Each structure stands twice: as C-alpha cells, then as structure tokens.
Amino acid sequence: MAEGQGEHVAHTTAAEQDGAVTSARRGDKVLIYEDELAFMARFVTDYPEIETGGDLFGFWTHSGSPVVEYVLGPATAANHQDVAFYQEASYLRSAGAALRDHHGLQHVGTWHSHHRLGLTEPSTGDSKTMQHAVDKNLFPGWLLTICNFADTSNLVEMRGYLYHAEGEGRHDQLTWIVLPGTSPIRSAMSQVPDFVHAEPDTPSTPFEAIPATSFTAIAASPVNNATFPSTSFLAMPEGREEFRRLYEQLLERHAGTEILQRDDGRVALAFTHEGYTFEIVFPHSFPLVKPVVECRPVDIPEGQEESWAVRRTMVVDVERGDDVVAAVEDLVDRFLRNRTHPADDRPPTREL
Fold first, then answer.
1. 216-338 to CATH, choices 3.10.110, 1.10.150, 1.10.1740, 3.40.50
2. Alpha-carbon distances, residue 26 vs 60, 165, 173 (angstroms)
3. Alpha carbon of residue 321 to chain centroid
4. Residue 148 in contact with residue 155, Cβ under 8 Å?
5. b/e string for 179-202 if b means 16 or more Cβ within 10 A?
6. Which of 5, 19, 153, 233 has the highest count of CB atoms within 10 angstroms of its CB?
7. b/e string for 299-330 if b means 16 or more Cβ within 10 A?
8. What is the pLDDT of residues 153-176, one digit of tens each?
9. Top-level class of domain 5-213
10. pTM summary value
11. What are residue 225's phi and psi, to 5 degrees?
C-alpha cells in the first residue's frame, strides 16, 4: 500500500499536468520498454519482505493510454514498511523536474510492491490515495503498477491499473504492450550530470508483466484475420511483416505511435505531432491502392468545430517499393508548413 504518496504526488506533479483536460482517459493498455519492467522487478527483489516503490514518467497517447519512458526507483531516504511505502518528496521533485526539463516527460503514475502479501490488486487504501491525487490535481488519469512475488518463487509479477477522473476509486486493469530493449530516455539521462536517481542492487531477476503482448504480436496475430477479407494484405504473413516494419519505423520518429483498427476492418498507424493527430489508413489492397493520411487538431480551436467535423484527408503519393514512412513524413511536413493558423477562421481545405 503506497500510503503517504498522495500528498507527494499532489506536490510534485500539479505543475506538470497544468492545462490537462479533466475528461476520463479511456486507454486499455500501457506501453513500456522491457528494460523498464526489469528495473522495477530488480528493486522489488532488493526488498523481498517489505514494500518498495517509485514513480512512472512518460506521456499519454491521444487515445488515453499511458506510455512509460522512465521508471524512477525509491530514494535512499524513502520509507519502506511491511504494508506501506513512502517516497521521499524532495527526491521525486528533483528527478521529476529533470525528466520534464530534458525530455518533456510527465508524471503519469506510481508503482509499489506488495511483496508476498498475496494482494495483486490495489488495496482500498491504494485506491483512495490514487483517486485523491487524480481529483485534487485535475489529472486526466493515473497509472498504478502493483508488483508481487508469484507464490513462493522469486518471479516478480507486475500488473497495471488505470484510475480515471471522478472515478470514485474504480480502476481498470491494462494490458502491457512491451517494447523491446532499453528506453532511449534512460540512455540519455545517464549522460546528464548531477541527475540523482537510484539503482537497484539486484543485477537481474525473472519477471512477468500480466497480461502482456507486443506490437509485433498484434500485427502478426492470426486472430485479427477474421475481420480481414482474404484479399487484404494483412491476411498474409508477408503483409503483416511489412506492416510491423512500417510501425517500427514510424515509432522511431514518433514515440507513442499506435496501431488502430477501423470498424470496416482497415488498419491505421496513429501518432500526434505539433498539435495534430495523424492517422495513416491502409486500404485492404495496399500497396496496390495508396494509403491516406487523416488529420485534425488535438484541440480544435473555438469556432472551427464544424470545419473539423470531418478529418482532413491527404493521399500518400507512393508506388510499390517506395518508402512509405518517408512519403508520409514529407506529406505531414508540407501540411504543417501550409496549415491554417489556429487563430485563423478560414476552414481547412480538403486534399484528395
């Protein structure tokens, strides 16, 4: 139980979330790098009989899912007890400010262990503390990760729960989308002088995120084929592999890129850039038929609601074998250079 964290959260994150909307987040997944999960598990193993914990930094996707780019461990002066953990407030403020100033990260949640208590869900006290933090600071959502040892083994299990604004303590368990390797933020922060952060003593430990998958598995999953016609490029292994490659290329350029599926079965790659959301929509007969990019502002300016009732659509000018991601980037750059200024009342034009 992360007792005492509510006030620490309130004092260290209110400025970071300034201007955040109060409507409930509806994401059903949490994205995290594999090594960040390992980082939590190693700290849990450092404290096998008492609680430990820390904080989660990253951002929110436009569909409301948290992306964890950096896991902060317990401060040296943190208070570990049998059924409670208290992070050191000054340490959290200092580390949070550095992550914000260097990489624009937000404080998106906390994590703590229930070691061998047999409690895999948030306790009543946890939920009260998390909901208080969300509502007091007008957060759009809050991620809580609970870590446990599995039965009598040393396997560390991790489960993520999302709290919503005005949710009265209700929480949804999320699916972990595990990204391979090390977070680029951790690599970059290791080069920042005077960045104070804790490192676990345990060199390695087995762990499992529950439930978990990967974008590679999502793109390659044969379960999705039921919604695709037999002529769809995603009905074939080589088509799914190509789609996975495109996703990974786009993710390198835009952290938080998501895979979406439309009601008609078409798939899209979605990302946010310079105040706009962009969705690359792939027809079933891709690459014979060109994909399109649909966009609209993240925050539609007052008075332009009718103009943006329908997303602006732009055709990606590619032929078979062309670099699709490069073509999309060029299209997006041209759109942003020529976009209607948010203060301008002229409706957007529609490119077909």
1. 3.10.110
2. 11, 11, 12
3. 31
4. no
5. beeebebbeebeeeeeeebbebeb
6. 5
7. eeeeebeebeeebbebebebeeeeebbebbbe
8. 889 999 999 998 888 888 989 989
9. alpha beta
10. 0.64
11. -60, -25
